[in-house]
Design a protein that fits this description.
With 246 residues, the chain is mainly beta. It has 3 helices and 8 strands.
């Protein structure tokens, strides 16, 4: 836990430093944050790849699971999963009042405890080869994992409800590497990831927003390993966003 807290603090400080460096490149005449979309005309947003800053905002978010299940059979996984991430956004366009953005997500902290459902843990009768092999047996019993990932194929839509409240939907897709198998058995350390999130964002200032919501995070080796039980983590998240002026 101490290591996770230190890494989390480091991520926040790194993201803040990056924001200051990037924001220094832009004039302070307008904001492209999702937190202030209700205060802008659609024409103030840069169209895709037609000029404007490459990065228009970033956010730091953290999530913790309240349920973890296998993806293949929806079986309960004995453990939990936590994430700390940074998302860099590029505002694309506004359609019917909703702001669409492209995201690049960096996940420096993926951690948790995973393992097989109790009835899949090897026994002398069901799987004697794995039961009498300490290394193979440990792949089934609860084990702590650390990992990191990146999800460059990601997007977000923010729809204002009031001047200060907005709904937000995001999807991400990428890869992750763990120090041990996820979730158990003949699964792999290297995995593909995908997630979908739904939340509500509150505008604190014109350039700062705070959001909370639910996320379904999927881990799978794409059947590239000997087995692919996969893992679906049901998460609750908190997110703080910061716009960069252009």
């Amino acid at each position: 836990m101490l290591l996770t807290k230190r890494v989390t603090i480091g991520v926040v400080l790194l993201a803040a430093s990056t924001a200051r460096l990037l924001s220094a490149q832009f004039a302070p005449d307008s904001s492209t944050s999702s937190a202030s979309v209700s205060n802008r005309a659609p024409t103030s947003l840069p169209m895709p790849f037609h000029g404007g800053p490459l990065i228009t905002g970033f956010n730091v978010w953290a999530a913790s699971s309240f349920a973890v299940r296998t993806a293949a059979a929806n079986e309960k996984v004995d453990g939990q999963f936590r994430i700390v991430g940074v998302q860099f956004s590029r505002s694309l366009f506004v359609l019917r009042g909703a702001q669409f953005s492209w995201l690049i997500e960096v996940l420096p902290v993926l951690t948790g405890t995973v393992g097989a459902p109790s009835y899949r843990i090897p026994t002398p009768e069901t799987n004697p080869e794995a039961y009498f092999d300490p290394i193979r047996y440990a792949r089934y019993t609860p084990h702590h994992v650390y990992g990191a990932g990146i999800a460059p194929l990601s997007a977000q839509v923010v729809k204002p409800l009031t001047n200060r409240l907005a709904t937000m939907i995001s999807v991400t897709s990428g890869v992750a590497l763990f120090n041990k198998v996820v979730p158990y058995g003949k699964a792999t350390e290297a995995n593909f990831t995908a997630s979908g999130s739904l939340g509500v964002e509150f505008t604190v200032t014109r350039t700062i927003g705070i959001a909370a919501g639910y996320s379904l995070h999927h881990v799978s080796n794409g059947s590239l390993g000997e087995a692919n039980p996969g893992m679906n983590s049901h998460l609750l998240f908190l997110k703080m966003s910061q716009s960069l002026r252009r």
